[in-house]
Amino acid sequence: MLYGIDSGALDNREYDSNFVSNHTVILNNLLPGTLYEFKVESKDRAGNSVQSRVKFFRTLPEEDKNKPSLYITLPPKLKGNVKLAPLVSDDKGVSRVSLFIDDKLFMTDYTFPYEFIINTKGFDDGLHRFEIRAWDFSGNVVFQGLESFIENTLFDHPTVRIISPSENERIDISTDEEVDIIAEIDHTGDLDIDRIEVLIDDNVVYTEQGRTLCSSSFEEGLSHCVYFPWSCNGSLPTNFVYQLRANLIVTGGEHKIKVIAYDTEGYYGSDEINVVSYVPEWVRPVLIPVYRYEFNPQGTYIHAEVSVYNAGNWPAKDIYLIIDQPMSPGFIITNSSERMQSTLIFGTDCTFHQQVVVTKDNLDTRATWRLSFDLIPIMTENPSSDSYIFINNLTVRYNWEGNEGTTGDYTIHPREDLTNIVQCLTGNSRYLIITNFEDMFDAPSSSSDGFCYATYTGEEGELVTNIGELALLRRGVVGNVRRGTTNTTIKNLISPSGEWARRLSQSFTSPLQGYVLIVGESNIVPSWTITGLNVQWAGGATTPQVDLSDLKYADISDDDLPDLVVGRIIGDNIEDLNRLIMTDIEVAKNMNRITGTKALILAGSEDTMKNAVDDLQSDLSSMYADIVKLNYSDYDNKSDRIDAFLDNTRDRSLIVYDGHGSVSSWQFYNTVSPDPDFGNKNPVIFSFACTTGRYRESNQNLFSLGEKFFNSNASLFIGSTESSAVSLNNEATINFFENYFDLGNLSVGEMLTNYKRDMDIKSKYRKLWVLEYNLYGDPLLGKSSPATLMVIGESGDEDLGEEIEIDLPNYNKTKKGEFDYIDIPKGSVSTATDKPRVPIFIYKKDIKKGVIVQNVYLKERNKVIEESGVNLPVVEMRPAQYSTLSNKIELNSSNSWYPEEDFRWTFTKNPDGTGTLKIVIFPLFYNQSEKKIRYYKYYKFSIEWIESGITVEDLKVKNRVNLNEEALISFKVKNSGEEK
After folding, report:
1. Which pTM value belongs to this model?
2. How far apart (Å, rounded) are the C-alpha atoms in residues 160 and 567?
3. Fewer CB atoms near the end CB (10 Å): N or C, the chain?
4. What is the residue extent of each domain of the chain?
């Protein structure tokens, strides 16, 4: 037989070891008048056992002729919910306590502390008698009655009555126990309680200010948090409980505790009591952790503080503060006020936790150690079921001089659900970091028994902390996918109706307003292989597909042009990934790391490359006072070119290369060369060359040229994963820096995205260029003010009109050898192969929501300029790889004029409902046989368009369905216009 006094704790046993049918067990030394819990176990000779259910018995009381003692108090006037807490005791035990109101039984309480809640609204105003009767187990009874007035309309301000602790109660301030301060609160008429304050010796130690409620409207794409008084959910606080840690009372002696309640009009009421604090005479430290957190409803992170107070009377030493934070979903702990060691734990439930350890050598008695840090939200693939828990366990461990071997250890379990707050925070963010912790750290798959477990320290923990810090600096949040997640699933999450996009800022999916940083190579977060291109090069080579492209992530409107600004962190191991993250953190903190007066530009072996870099030098001269230009033709051999490059890298904030390339080399440098010295800068590097951005091959690591530069702390690298056209790389060298480069006002990622969006991708070579060039590094790097990440208003022109007039600038003609090169300022050139090189001009106009362009007509063109004796070169599309160049192609003489079309147009719907009208104008016509050109400066176009208030919103579909399974698609049709 097992039995005991405390519920669930059957600590006592008695046995009858005889093998009989009826057993007798005698229990000795039972307490009188006590309720016992018991159960019976029985076992036969074969070892089979059975167990009864739990039952109870009460022992008889001792002979008792003494009545219980009783003491009650009541205010002279009562209103609202009143707690009556009589002090009852008996030397043999109290059986029950009853409250009679006006000689009628109101309630009976059988358990300590014998409290009664009276709602005065159930009684008439006037004098009433309240009588307490208390019985012991022998039937002895004691009575005490008091009279008090009930006046339900009595007060015009909140009222407070402290009912615990009692007046002059003694509090041991060395204990780690909590002392409950309990106060009755009544409000003012119809006004709400706005806040309650607790003061100790006139110092505010705690404030409770209503409730913070967060709401999200995925239909409207809005998320916000608001502070409400308590009554917003239909109830008012009538009993206020604050768990006071004794460490807030720092000295022994008499202290005053005061509770103040304010209503929404600023009226207040208060009550105060005196308590006596004391310290026992033992000698040891007692360390108690407490925590608090706060957040800005317009922010993207939670700020937390942990305080450790030594409530003992002896110094502590060798102190360890250990914080266990769930991550899947959950938060990344970062930006700690003290150095911390971060360990990742892949738990038995196959989810990650971050365990942070912070140490301190010693803490004097009555001293407080404070640690602050920030928490970055992490979304999972199924955010609708995510629950965000704030700190699973918070432990402090310590030692002290004279200790005999027992280490102090105290743990609390906050485990507060902050899901509503996180919905508010993610709704403020337009910067998303996407990664896959399982594949990044090669976490084990679940074993046959269904469990996973691994720990990661050092570089792994530091990398996660640094990801959190970069997110903090960029007002971002993190999205973590699981092993096996496809690129299509990830794109669906960030597309306009995707689960992540709906939880981010409403402007995240607007063109150039959302930023995505992918952390890890394609084995961690998959890239895209784009097939079906079959680009033909001069000389017979082809490019059938583009590997390692990130364009599909940026292209959430599926028009082969980027909408989001996307970057990727690459590296063959954790150390390499961490290095680039840390570099971009330093740049985010200090833009001087990528700005300055020094630039380095390099031209490859062809004349067109040299000419382009010459033009680049002219374009950059107004921004950079010290420009070093290196030409391939100025050096006799490869070794001299490498030396020239290495001699000129120090303190260069911008490096641009236009030339031939490969995965591991430029014509001036390669991955086996000595590391460059960038001095005090973390340069931005543009590599307009073939395959220098290719970082993997057949799912194997490649040590690419970009990674070589990142090892020397370059901050950003733009490179191609495939062969790219020499002519388009020459064009980018000139056009990008002349018309798009605006460091400080724009990030490099925004510049590149703008440049791609303005390309005429009906040319397969330009489409290839858009697909193959990736940005490696932070997509927001280069923008001086993170405040520009705040949500902006709707984009697009208010009035399109029926006509568009375009005045083109005069063309520029440059003689290079036997050919004339004609360009238009802020224009481009045609990529039609084996045809004359003629300039084109791309006009772009943003269109407001609801407008659809149906047709564009050329209504007028004039201001013609004609010129004779012009010899235009032929367009020959060759890749910028090391190869034997083909002979120049000669044009067949013809009396016809080229090109044959005057213009073409496209209208694209953007993810946010706005549109973009793009008109590609061919203003220059060339007659090869007569060597004449005809250039039109003025164009007038007629635009046909319609406007509709009907939009399709909130499109939802499952990311994955089984074969032959029905896929439910849901959406809303909204008409904001007139009813028709």
Report:
1. 0.68
2. 58
3. C
4. 2-58, 69-278, 301-485, 506-789, 803-947
